[in-house]
Design brief:
Layout lengths: L2 E5 L1 H28 L13 H12 L10 H7 L5 H12 L13 E4 L2 H20 L6 H10 L4 E3 L5 E3 L1 H4 L8
Length: 178
Amino acid sequence: MKKIIRFESQGYNVQLQAYEKKLELEGVIARELKAKIGIDFKAQDLFPNPELKLFKLIEKRFKNENPMNLSGFKLAELKEIRLSNLLNNEIFDYGKRLHITKPDKKDFSTYAETDSELEKLEACQSFIKAYKTFVPGLVTGNQLKQLFFATNQAITRGENNTLIPNINYVKDAVSTRT
């Protein structure tokens, strides 16, 4: 059995926003290509070398209307298909986000898995619950510093100044003093 020690919501939210921006850019690129060239095409298929692939798409799209076998660049110029704005903005921005994948909450979570870790986590949670009974509300910096040393670094500060179990203590990353 494993129990969650901590979930890094801030990191998860940053990654999720980056992923959502990537999806938004995919939609913009697909709509622009459909409007300008008349082809359904996925943004990720443009990489690597999006400029070359765009002009190859234009050649393919207008193959029947191109008896002189002009390059995609020349065809775009003749047909007044302006791609520089799309290339310089959305496609460039999308290229910086190619590596971004949908975040998974488990990748931003730390778990107590062994019996020792589960025992330490339970002790920390019991202490925090008891402390909140006697001292409700926010924890000041001085209180936190005292708690940190009084609990042998088992309790630390989390988001919004809440008390949380110290991952290093629970996961045995820091040697405990006796």
